[in-house]
Here is the input.
Amino acid sequence: MADVNRGNRPLSPHLSIYRPQLNSITSIFVRITGNGLIVGALLVVWWLVAAASGAASFDTIDGLMTSILGDLVMTLSVLALWYHTLGGLRHLIWDTGHGLDMETSDKMGWVMIIGSVVLTLLTVIVI
Here is the structure.
């Protein structure tokens, strides 16, 4: 049966007219950091496999991991790990039915952003 009201229904908001909110942006970045963590994990696995394979293999990946690029990638991986962890904690709080109002939700979004930067700096300084 054909949908006779198809042309009369409103269209969904498009990205060009939709104003991004803090919650939507932080949610998108939780997904992005989750995928980015896969890359960091693969580098660590590559490093461990190379360490078990022999000196020549290890020297190649160790040179990459200890370079400025490697330091940058690993530091961004730590940032992604903290951000993703704080995002997971926020979702656990939401799953209990708490913090769903806009004010609290926005505060938790800022805690995720600022907290991940502070925790990354603490991690880099301590390690």
Observations:
- The first helix runs from residue 22 to 53.
- The chain has one domain: 21-126.
